[in-house]
Amino acid sequence: MKNDFISIIQKCTCIDFMINTLINTNSYNYLNCLSDIKEENLRNIKIMCYLYEYLSKDVLPIDDITSLKISKYSECDLNILLEFNLKVLSELETLKKYVKNTFYYQILIGLINSYLSFISSIHCVHPINTTSDKSQFKLFNPIYSKLKDKDQLEISTKYLRSVSIDAIKFFFNNNLLEKNICDEYYKVFFENNSESKFYQYFFISNNRYFNVKLFAKDATVFYISQSINESKEINLNMSKQESIVFSHNYLKEKLNSLFNYLSFDENYTVISSDIENIINYKFRYNLNLPKEKDNPFSSIYVTINTKYMAIQEIYLL
């Protein structure tokens, strides 16, 4: 656990160094948000030290942490700053397994949301393409732009399967390796209607069950969900407002600039519950893309699983 905290704080220190560099350059000195990110990042480092002290009953002096070699980042830009924020975000997620106390778990979630906000701020003022050119999945239109004649393109089930796995990685941060797939199968719907025909892929891993639906004509993913099968539940009893904030932050991270075209529907909330607790909140966002952007969907629905504090379902209509 100590090494996990040290690794995160090392990267946070790098973030501070890079922000200083960016603030002092003419290229980025117009970004007022950098000073706010710097201040909050330094505050987060202190919070992480306190959190470690509680969890381990030990002290983690910042002075004892060896600095990473960051000389190669002296000519850093926002892409590299984003890269480090994403690494911190990923490593903070791994700390969840150490936190059993609800109060301190909320502190950890606050740290995670903080770096989600950093990432969103960077994307907002300086959109950055973080999707690998090799990735087959892109939201709304995953087909390679170089494939001009989509009407004559025959998309294989192998390709659709690959797009489904890419979508799982994109939406749920789950790198579904072949060796981790316990079982899988797919179904075909509206097989005789080329416009409506879609495939539904199911993947079962060690503790997850994934369901992906995508159109056969262009491999557009319009539905994806995960079922979590873990022995330990968080049971934070997230309020509606907490779930809304969680949903907003998630979509900001995943959709980047597309999030600016979403409007949250305050009049739409679907609640699922058992005898004692609320299990899910489902929210709707209206999608208002410019006319020049080709998109057949008008709404995005997001379901939050309050038991595991996770995104359970996303679909487009």
List the keywords.
Ferritin; globular
N-to-C order of helices and strands: HHHHHEEEEHEEEE
Strand residues, percent: 15-25%
The structural domain count equals 2
**Count the strands?**
8
Q: Low-confidence parts lasting 5 or more residues at pLDDT below 50?
A: 67-75, 128-153
Which value, in Å, is the CA radius of gyration?
21 Å
Strand order of the largest sheet: 1-2-3-4-8-7-6-5
Write down the overall mean pLDDT. Answer: 76
Oligomeric state of the chains in view: single chain
Helix content: 25-40%
For the terminal residues, how far apart are their CA atoms?
43 Å
Supply the number of helical segments.
Answer: 6
Outline the biggest β-sheet.
8 strands, antiparallel
Shape, principal axes of CA atoms: globular
SS-derived structural category: alpha+beta
Structure, described:
By secondary structure, the protein is α+β, with helices and mostly antiparallel strands. The chain has 2 domains: 2-125, Up-down Bundle (Ferritin); 150-316, no CATH class. The chain is built from 6 helices and 8 strands. The chain has an 8-stranded antiparallel sheet with strand order 1-2-3-4-8-7-6-5, covered by helices on one side. Strand 3 and strand 4 (221-228) form a beta hairpin. Helix 3 packs antiparallel against helix 4 (102-125). It starts with a helix and ends with a strand. Residues 67-75 and 128-153 have low confidence and may be disordered.
